[in-house]
Amino acid sequence: MNEREETMQSKLVPHRDLYNVRKVDGHVHLASAMNQKHLLRFIKYKLKTEPDRPVIVRDGQTLSLRQVFESLNLTAYDLSIDTLDMHAHKGAYHRFDKFNLKYNPIGESRLREIFMKTDNFIDGEFFAQITKEVVSDLEQSKYQMAEYRISIYGRSADEWDKLAAWVVDNKIFSSNVRWLIQVPRLYNVYKAGGQVQNFEQVLENLFRPLFEVTGDPRTHPKLHIFLQRVVGFDSVDDESKPERRMHKKYPLPRLWTTGENPPYTYYCFFTMANLCSLNQWRLRRGFNTFVFRPHAGEAGDTEHLAAAFLSSQAINHGILLRKVPALQYLFYLQQIGLAMSPLSNNALFL
């Protein structure tokens, strides 16, 4: 309706167009921040300059980078964009599991562990180096910024300190970059592996260090520095998985001891409840606070969108809102933002 008027107003603003206005990518996973060509160039460079560097332990044996590639029957000459195979194609359509496998270079989890993990045999050094290269590109472009998503799983209490040490020790700081913590909904996996006994342990691993460092920053000094650059939390997993409704009234987290994964709404409620308490305390202490921006409405039950509406400040995806006009209107009235991902959505669900 006001297209011409908006165009005229845009022309009156000096030195501003699409290319020199500041843009923030609010939905990018750190493991996919670099393009395939950049990752390929980095892997080849490391294979050429540090072939004998010990990088991983397999079956009690420490392997060098050269030995890892020899076990894959590959050389630097063999590597190409096609052999990396990290592009989501038609085979990933409606298959979130196959889409996730595209994060593995050459389909090998050991290469992902070496080059794209923060907690590994080399303390995430390679991942830090390529991340700093990506950040440097952002700084050179001047007008591009990003909120990189990085995972905290809730499997153990020291995850926060390890992640904070990785960021602080490698000096991954930039005015163009902020961090957003994504929490995978994988309680059932941790329970099956004997890493936790109930859902309360997951919540404690996620939030106890945050409350401790808010009360006394000296308890986790590096975490205190890192949290100053964290903007919020995300809840992620395959939304298309069916959820069994076994309870008329859900038990408390300490009583959730079954191997079944809690539903999406359960995760949202307890994440939001803990964040509210944490934010109030951090506000009183003069520290920065966090928002809750979960993945919602990418696939699966539209109940996820209702839960996100009640608990979040913004959501990621939200493509199922087109099927629920009433909720879509409520999101508009409350101005709850949507971070859309057209390429991801087209590859997976549209």
Automatic annotation (TrEMBL):
Pfam (any one): AMP_deaminase
One GO molecular-function entry: metal ion binding
GO cellular component: cytosol
Superkingdom of this protein's organism: Eukaryota
Cofactor: Zn(2+)
Keyword match Hydrolase: yes
GO biological process, one term: AMP metabolic process
EC number from the UniProt entry: 3.5.4.6
InterPro entries: AMPD (IPR006329), Metal_Hydrolase (IPR032466)
Pathway terms, separated by semicolons: Purine metabolism; IMP biosynthesis via salvage pathway; IMP from AMP: step 1/1
Family the UniProt entry places it in: Belongs to the metallo-dependent hydrolases superfamily. Adenosine and AMP deaminases family.
Name the record gives this protein: AMP deaminase
Species of origin: Coemansia asiatica
Lineage: Eukaryota, Fungi, Fungi incertae sedis, Zoopagomycota, Kickxellomycotina
